Amino acid sequence: xxRTSSRSAKKSSPPKPQPVDALVxxxxxxxxxxxxxxxxxxxxxxxxxxxxxxYDGGTTYRPGPRFGPRHVxxxxxxxxxxxxxLNVNPFEKHRIAxxxxxxxNPLSIDDTFRRITSQLAxxxxxxARTACVGGDHSILLPILRSIHQQFGPVxxxxxxxxxxxxxxxxxxxxxHGTPVRRAIEEGLLAGNDVLQIGLRGQVYxxxxxxxxxxxxxxxxxxxxFHRRGLPAIDRHFKRLERRPVYVTLDIDVVDPAFAPGTxxxxxxxxxxxxxxxxxxxxxxxxxxxxxxxxxxxxxxxxEITSLLAxxxxxxxxxxx
Length: 320
Prior knowledge:
Blueprint: H1 4-11, E1 48-53, H2 68-75, H3 90-93, E2 96-101, H4 109-125, E3 129-134, H5 140-151, E4 154-159, H6 179-185, E5 189-197, H7 210-214, E6 218-220, H8 222-228, H9 231-239, E7 245-250, H10 272-280, E8 287-293, H11 304-319
Parallel strand pairs: 1-2, 1-3, 3-8, 4-5, 4-7, 5-6, 7-8
Helix pairs in contact: 2-11, 4-5, 5-6, 10-11
């Protein structure tokens, strides 16, 4: 549970941080922060901390997500505060700011994981929730370790083209294809409350789905969502209404026609409109944290992937 002292301090704190007014300062000016919010590296002053994790040492194909936070910040300058679909301004509802980037070790995945867990644990202990921008999907494991310290086992909603339950890669137990398996093995997740949305494409063998089947994962593939839409998801969301839920969004859940800037693109994915609809449908769930990962700017076209990621980050704030 969050400490009441932190919550009480926030009630008496100054007005909530707000994005820079684009009618006073043009969007192309100033220092880039997430959604032009102030940089406040003090979690005790925040309800939600927007945090960059520029690490891609877990990638297995195309590198580049280390540059994701920087480019998402740039593209988020276009975000306006009022959401007419959800009828909410998240910056009026919560104290939100750009916390900055975590310290990582580009030469060591194990040390990076320790650093991520330790730094995020401090944020959570101060009473703030975290919305992280990666970085590759390997960072999900150390994030969930910190979430577990605060909330215990949580449900997981994973938007992804891949199930990320590999056993390892080239002798290493950790990569961007292993975090969900490792999280289950460490008891960080409640297996029956793992929902994976958007899976598709080729795998190494039929056994690639065995781990999820054994642990009771719920799966809605991209093909099923294309055929049925939100009704394919609704009953799964209802199962998660009564427990804390963590949301992880790998941008490769979106078809490379809409999001080419990612490390492991897979055709047949969701459109940008579909992923927006899915994220908005999370409203009402008890979301204790979220991340958006695998934006690889070197492979992007006209920054459209970073732009989509910035909009999805905003939508996640609106449903938290």
